[in-house]
Amino acid sequence: MTPRTGAALPAATCVDPLATAWGAAASASGLVSLLRGARVRLELPGAGDLRWHLADAAVLGPLHEQACDERGNPWPQPLVSHYARYFRDGNRTAYEALVAARQQRLTRAVVMALVSDDGGPASWAGAGRDAWLDEVIDGAYLLCEQSSWSWAAHDDVFTRSGEVVPDLGRPFLDLGAGEVAAQLAWLDHVLGARLDERAPGLRTRIRGEAVRRVIRPFLDRMDWHWLGLDGDVHNWNPWIHSNLIAAALFLVDHPETQARTVARCIEGLDRFFASLPADGAIDEGFAYWWNGAGRALEGLALLEQATGGGLDAGLPVVRELVAYPHRMHIGANWFLNVADGPAQAASALPWDMLHGWAVRLGDQDAARHAAAMAAPRIEAAAGLGRVLHSLVATVEEVGGEAGVKKAETPPLVPFAWCPSVQIMVAREAAGTSRGLFLAAKGGHNGEHHNHKDVGSVVVAADGVPLLVDAGQPTYTAKTFGPDRYEIRAMQSAWHSVPAPFGLEQGAGREYAAVVLAEPAPDGPTLELALGPAYGLRPDAWTRTSSLDRNAGKVVVADRWDLDGARDNGTSDVDIAYLAAGTVRLGQGAATVLPAGIPGAGGTRGLALRWEPASAVVLVDEWTLDDPLLASVWGEKLTRLRFRLPMTEKSRAAGAFTLTAEVTP
After folding, report:
1. Residues 6+ away with beta carbon under 8 Å from 207
2. How many CA atoms lie within 13 A of 155 on its CB side?
3. What angle do helix axes 293-306 and 236-251 make, rounded to 10 degrees?
4. What DSSP letter does each residue of 312-373 carry, written as one string?
């Protein structure tokens, strides 16, 4: 099952940028010699290194506490009944949550085995190195015994055979399998010698399972959808390929097989980088940047280290990619979300990785942003490889003492325009989240993880989004199936967009916006023709979204020239705005306050006015019973629908304008 609902964006970078830059050195024959001695060149140290002993107890505190609580207790046990639930009732989380819990426990055990090494100044009371090594051994062996490393939602066993039990003879190589292989690879890299002492034979078993479940399926089959051979390249591509690079480097001992695996990973990553637009934007949005572009950057860095610089990762395509996250920043932990992305950044993101790239490229804004967002603690949910790299990055050896990177303030850039995805963001004043923030989106409805959001706007006050995009609900079988747009969060009716004749936007690349006027930094205004998103002629509907910094207001102006009702529509026009927090409605005006949004704080909100004031306002409350949505927005979201009945005159020359200002 592919995580997409339409065609990929056209490539705007050079064809095969990795092959162009690296040439024969990136071939299987060239890599045999380049990868010789690769493991000792990596920046991540093995057990016994001083850097593990310098780990800050404050950074590791929560991880240590949870590791101690769970050590000695039964391990999470995913069962076939959990696996089968996806095929029976569409539930993904019953199985995936148990798998994640098992892997996160193993990650915590690996960290504790490293920092509790004999004689280390960061030794923890209550358990020594061997006790934690036994915890690691048990967790790693359980993964080797686990029937499937793939997630049920991706396995093709049911579609092929009607069975709901994993087929041991035909392992499915997906995100889950790649994550397990990489976890075992990083575990082997940092604890290998210790494991040989404590559990001889375990590393042999790990290698055998990795080759059988991951390496051989990767080398023997070319029909994996995530390879991107059909031109559709999405975030699975770099996510899996980068994990496979780690698996090949640490778990494949045969030089020719290792080189062949890495060479094919480079070919796959090349397709991803070639698909990127020149502006570095990701159509899946900020949240998926980390498990798409971010994974690709990690793969590049690993290749460069493993080859001793023989494969130089400093490629031109990377620069704009690194800038994308901070350009989407609204304020605090809020980011512009499109498609299947939450508006709050996850707590386990590897900001240190982004910081390292920004420093290397000399991008001061990206570096400031990454340093400002860096979490004060390490979380196992990030995955073992990221946890280990983040832990080392928090330590600076200065006179033998541990230090943490100095905190920064985010740049909060005043303007950004990404033409490839037709996204404009603008804020009232640079360097501060106080005041108004506007994001306006065009795009098309064939984007990866697409929601029907062509023409949508997000408006924030003092860094808190109040006219919002609901974002990602909990994934189920319906999420990536033919009934995807039955899910409310994916429908245009529940985005801040118009509904001419009450129509829902269409699904597919042809349902798109046309940019009529590109925005400029000094007067951020995006003018779009939205007719095609509804199957209408382009000039049937135009939307102009602007931020007037001098007047301190956002103005969204809709104009239409409609030629007649549609058989599948109504005789009215609806214009919807989705609001978070507390909405108070008055005559021709409303306020939206942050009260009710988890952790939002502040008292200022948005004051809304509209013309014509006579528009009928329909209020629909959406009670959020989905835990992912509720964790971001609280108990509910509120839709304001402005309904304008059509006469012959208003149909041909209609107008509606919404103005938003910050409340006093």
Report:
1. 251, 252, 253
2. 30
3. 30
4. ----HHHHHHHHHHHHTEEETTEE---SS--SB--TT--HHHHHHHHHHHT-HHHHHHHHHH
d(CA 337, CA 628): 14
- Contact between residue 540 and residue 511 where contact means Cβ atoms under 8 Å apart: no
**Structure tokens that stand for 151 in this block:** 């997630």
Nearest-angstrom CA–CA distance, 64 and 60: 6
At position 365, the amino acid (one-letter code) is: D
Q: Is 546 helix (H, G, I), strand (E, B) or coil?
A: strand
The one-letter code for the residue type at 275 is S
Backbone φ and ψ for 529, nearest 5 degrees, come out as: -95, 120
Give the pairing type, strands 525-529 and 606-611: unpaired
User: Which residues neighbour 330 within 8 Å (Cβ) at sequence distance 6 or greater?
Assistant: 336, 343, 433, 437, 439, 458, 460, 463, 464, 465
What six digits make up the tokens of 462? 């003092």
Contact (CB, 8 A) for 184 and 108: no
Q: For residue range 289-329, list pLDDT tens digits in order.
A: 999 999 999 999 999 999 999 999 988 889 999 999 999 99
Peptide linkage before 612 cis (omega within 30 of 0): yes
Please count the residues of the chain: 664
User: What is the rounded CA–CA span in Å between residue 356 and residue 376?
Assistant: 17
Structure tokens that stand for 606 in this block: 């948005």
**Overall pTM > 0.85:** yes
Q: Residue by residue, what is the 3-state secondary structure of 169-218?
A: CCCCCCHHHHHHHHHHHHHHHHHHHHHHHHCCCHHHHHHHHHHHHHHHHH
CB burial of 184-209 (b: ≥16 within 10 Å; e: otherwise) equals: bbbbbbbbbebbeebbeebbeebbeb
CA distance 447 to 300: 25
Q: Is the pLDDT of residue 540 over 70?
A: yes
**What is the rounded CA–CA span in Å between residue 41 and residue 83?**
40
pLDDT one-digit tens code per residue, 491-504: 999 999 999 999 99
- Cβ count near 580 (within 10 Å): 27
